[in-house]
Amino acid sequence: MEIEIYADVVCPWCYIGKRRLEQALASYDGEVTVRYRPFQLDPSPVTTPGPLLDALAAKFGGRERAESMAGQVTQVAAGVGLTLNFERAVSANTFDAHRLVRFADGHGRAGELVEALYRAHFTDGVDVGSPEALVALATSVGLDETGAREYLASNAGRRELAADLSTAHQLGVTSVPTFVLAGKYGVTGAQEPETLLAALTEVAQRESAA
User: Fold this and answer.
1) pTM
2) In Å, how far are 11, 27, 190, 205 from 16, measured between CA atoms?
3) Which pLDDT score is estimated for 84?
4) Is residue 7 a contact partner of residue 41, using CB atoms and an 8 Å limit?
5) Mapping DSSP to helix (H, G, I), strand (E, B) and coil, where does residue 178 land?
6) Residue 71 burial (CB < 10 Å; 0-12/13-18/19+)?
7) Please, are residues 121 and 92 in contact by the beta-carbon 8 Å criterion?
8) Alpha helices (H) along 29-188
9) Eight-class DSSP state of 69
10) Are 9 and 117 in contact, with CB atoms under 8 Å apart?
């Protein structure tokens, strides 16, 4: 079964959803292939990277509200073994990060890079909109440094990524994470592992009976 994950690497619930899916798959007997599909929570350019909490405060009505939301999601993340350091996180446009995931996918490293991007943004306070930071993350998962640097410096993958982002909206993906199972069954949100496992089992049964 193919599992497509529509997500953004600066979305905390997507990070949580990825980990919960991994927990569900640990108890699932079937064969699966995971594909990472791009989505941008905010496609606006980030000309001057700054503290993520400042950006959240501006978007959600003040610092207190932003810190409250961050605290809640941090607690949920800790429940699945993830460390979110919102006080270190830097706001970033993720277009090039998604481009790099396409590059990594061509070398069999998409899953490793996506994990590295989440950890860099939420745990280590890395600016995942920075080309230099992206090259470093690429090499950390075994990708060729020169190849990654040249790819990011070129226009390679830009048109394809724009088309992929458009496709997500055409499919009706409006919030992430969204999991698409077997190309036609959607599960939205960072569902609990038990819910995801039940969905996987049901879809497998439907597909085998089709």
Assistant:
1) 0.96
2) 9, 17, 6, 26
3) 98
4) no
5) strand
6) exposed
7) yes
8) 52-60, 63-78, 95-105, 110-122, 131-140, 145-153, 158-170
9) H
10) yes
Below-70 pLDDT ranges, the chain: none
The neighbour count for residue 126, using CB atoms within 10 Å, is: 21
Q: How many CB atoms lie within 10 A of CB 93?
A: 18
Q: Provide the token pair at 60.
A: 């959600």
The CA-based dihedral angle spanning residues 123, 127, 132, 136, taken in that order and rounded to the nearest 10 degrees: 10
192: three-class secondary structure by DSSP: coil
Residue pair 18/111 in contact (Cβ under 8 Å)? The answer is no
In our burial notation (b when 16+ CB lie closer than 10 A, e otherwise), range 177-209 reads bbbbbbeebebbebbebeebbebbeebbeeeee
Query: What is the rounded distance in angstroms from the CA atom of residue 161 to the CA atom of residue 164?
Result: 5
- For residue 15, the model assigns a pLDDT of 98
DSSP state of 62: S
Asked if 7 and 117 touch (Cβ cutoff 8 Å), the reply is no
Distance set, CA 154 to CA 29, 159, 163, 190 (Å):
42, 12, 17, 34
Which pair of structure tokens corresponds to residue 180? 């698409």
Neighbouring residues of 113: CB distance < 8 A, sequence distance ≥ 6: 100, 101, 104, 137, 138, 141, 143
